Amino acid sequence: MATEPAAAPPSDREEKILGIIETARSKRAKFRDEHITMSHGAGGKATQGLIEGLLVPAFASETLSAMGDAGAVSVNGLELALTTDSFVVKPIRFPGGSIGELAVNGTVNDLAMAGARPLALSLSLILEEGLPADDLRAEVDAIAAAARAAEVEIVAGDTKVVERGHADQMYLCTTGIGRRDPRAALSTSALRPGDRILVSGPIGEHGTAIMLARGDLGLDAEIESDTRSLWPAVDALLDAAGPSLRCLRDATRGGVASVLNELARASSVAMIVREADVPVSAEVAGASELLGIDPMYVANEGKLVAFVAPEAADDALAALRGVPGGEDAADIGEVKTEPPGMVLVATAFGGKRVMDQLVGDPLPRIC
Amino acid sequence: MKFVDEFRDAELGQVLAGEILATVEPGRHYKIMEVCGGHTHSIYKYGIDDLLPANVELVHGPGCPVCVIPMGRVDDGIALAREPDVILTCFGDMMRIPGSDGSFLDAKAEGADIRMVYSPLDALRIARENPDRQVVFYAIGFETTAPSTALTLKRAKAEGIKNFSCMCSHVTIVPPLRALLDSPDLRLDGFIGPGHVSTVVGARPFEFISESYGKPVVVSGFEPLDVLQSIHMILSQLTEDRCTVENQYGRVVPYDGNLRALEVLSEVFELRPHFEWRGLGFISQSALRLSDAYADFDAEQRFTVPGVRVADPKACQCGEVLKGVIKPWECKVFGTACTPERPIGTCMVSPEGACAAYYNYGRFAREREVV
Question: Which of A216, A342, A360 faces B96 most closely, judged by CB atoms?
């Protein structure tokens, strides 16, 4: 039987290779692809390459480079936030919501994550020839209702119709403007070791609801999209934690895992997530298990991740739990020092692993 | 979750970890290969490595059926998908495997109609729904998934569906293991046997590993307690100088396999004389093709596929990594020409392959307590 010495310290060659990898990792993501693939829209590494490698350098805007959910604009001392988002979800209606509701809440939430109280939205409709007028009416009603609930006004709009087959039923685009709240001092680079990581409720519901609503998995479960305005949660957090609230993100595309990875890089810190403390409903856990997908990477439309200085974390968690929809908010982990840029998971089984950035769409595995 | 949580109990995990620690001989280094990609995934997902002493090293084996598909066969699939009336269907994890000029995902972006399915029966449904299109199922996997392909082909034949065919890249588990074991520089002490494959073939086919090559095999389930228990069983065999095939996954794996499934396999498929494996080269009788009775459903006969062999790059040393002869960072192209974004070899193609894991988690991955 072979007997070898137990793991030795890294050799010179291994050190050199580790150095090459670390240099490659710290470089800004490049956009070198020949075609746009679905991965570029999935919120993982390819999306990051597209944004950091093509868009940010092309527009050379300091605000844009900060890569917040909304850009900061100051007008004569008035602190505003501006953001835009488009919605191409399929199917357009799904358990718990519809494209119209998403279009309002998605943009409202991007403003809220920048610590801005949403004020007004614009709405663009791109409609496919042949769309039943009743479908459009239903979505317009959904938009109006969501706007009322989020206390924002739709103040401008546009309508285009494209030939049959050139769009899939309808696409929506909303742009939102909000007023930055003076209580907020949020920044993607503000995270410090010791900060606590909170999520506002059970994760993975929207993405799972959509996957099941597409119907090709032959799975039935009572899972509804979690789409909702997050401003009330942000308002409560700002009241409870004020400047101790370091950063906020809504965990949409790419899920909680992508938010954590993005911020670990932006703040050059490590994070440790306690898997057992992450709230996941039994239905989402079951569907993920069957589909071979990790709910940490599944999209949410009404959940935020908050990074809070340790002294204010308990108050912040209590505040979150006091907001409708935040009853199951949880403290899921902590910001650490080493290894910078990496997110680790303490698994419920007692091991540790790296929770990496998503490469491409989350594809189910056969093996 | 019922029937799942029982096998993920952290306290029992600690108990097993303690027993493993008590079993290993200090100063002795153990290299155990988990043959199956599913085990690699469990080990990674639950952080099982972390519960092992540092002198127990797990080596990821050749059992990820998508990662071993050679570039030429990916190219063949893309060529089929580019035929004007073809819909190519395949499992999700095949989508990212690179050919010589991109993956299925890239081909899809360029306009090829490639659709992900969860079951070959879904591919057959697509064929029924699109009678004016040719639907090809790009079949991959070991004996685990081959029976479902076989049953789908039987159904297609029974229903007389003319626009459905199968490009078969199913592989078999024993030949690559034999190829690994035959290599003179192999440094492995034991094997975690593939659980899913064994539900079909049973545990008996692995007896040659203990009998002719003197290495213990434990056929294992996929939950973390299964894997830990299997590791403990292998280490116990090594410590007690025993060497045999044991079945940890008895709740699912009959020692002689699933005779019904094996029957269907032999009806629909026959062995190919040889098949190329990415990273391992040509291996005799290591893959399946459609039998003569199903020749009408063979996409390679229905269509003209290029069938061009694309050699693995010379510098790629996946074979040596798989055999445990070298570490990922000792490969000449590791981290420079071969990266997770642009992988060359099978160990980098799969996110759980030894090279991809080392690339992504390098420093973190090597920090474990030494006994």
Answer: A360
Instruction: Identify which of B229, B210, B235 has the alpha carbon closest to the alpha carbon of residue B29.
Output: B235
Binned at pLDDT 50, 70 and 90, residue A242 comes out as very high
Query: 3-state SS of chain B?
Result: CCCCHHHHCHHHHHHHHHHHHHHCCCCCCEEEEEEEHHHHHHHHHHCHHHHCCCCEEEEEEEECCCCCCCHHHHHHHHHHHCCCCEEEEECHHHCCCCEECECHHHHHHCCCCEEECCCHHHHHHHHHHCCCCEEEEEEEECCCCHHHHHHHHHHHHHHCCCCEEEEEEEECCHHHHHHHHHCCCCCCCEEEECHHHHHHHCCHHHHHHHHHHCCCEEECCCCHHHHHHHHHHHHHHHHCCCCCEEECCCCCCCCCCCHHHHHHHHHHEEECCEEEECCCEEEECCEEEECHHHHHHEHHHHCCCCCCCCCCCCCCCHHHHHHCCCCHHHCCCECCCECCCCCCCHHHHCCCCHHHHHHHHHHHHHCCCCC
A46 to chain B: nearest residue by CA? Answer: B341
- The pLDDT confidence band at residue A361, using thresholds 50, 70 and 90, is low
Backbone angle region of B279, left / alpha / beta, with phi > 0 → left and psi within -120 to 50 → alpha: left
Q: Which of B29, B47, B65 sits opposite A5 (nearest CB)?
A: B29
Note whether B76 and B276 are within 8 A (CB): no
What DSSP designation does A303 have?
A: -
Residues of chain A with Cβ-Cβ distance to B238 below 8 Å are 1
Nearest chain B residue to A358, by CA: B351
Report pLDDT digits (tens) over A228-240: 999 999 999 999 9
Contacts of B246 (CB under 8 A, 6+ apart): B203, B216, B217, B218, B219, B233, B237
For A37, the closest chain B residue by CA position comes to: B109
Q: Is the peptide bond before A193 cis (omega within 30 degrees of 0)?
A: no
CA distance B116 to chain A (A): 9
Domains annotated on chain B, with CATH: 71-173+257-302 (3.40.50.11740)
Closest CB to B64: pick one of A285, A344, A367. Answer: A367
Tokens of A147: 């706007």
Query: Residue A117: which region, alpha, beta or left (left: phi > 0; alpha: psi -120 to 50)?
Result: beta
Residue B322 scores a pLDDT above 80 = no
pLDDT (tens digit per residue) in B191-200: 999 999 999 9
Which phi and psi (to 5°) does residue B2 adopt? -65, 145
- Would you state the pLDDT for residue A360? 62
List the domains of chain A with CATH numbers: 69-180 (3.30.1330.10), 196-354 (3.90.650.10)
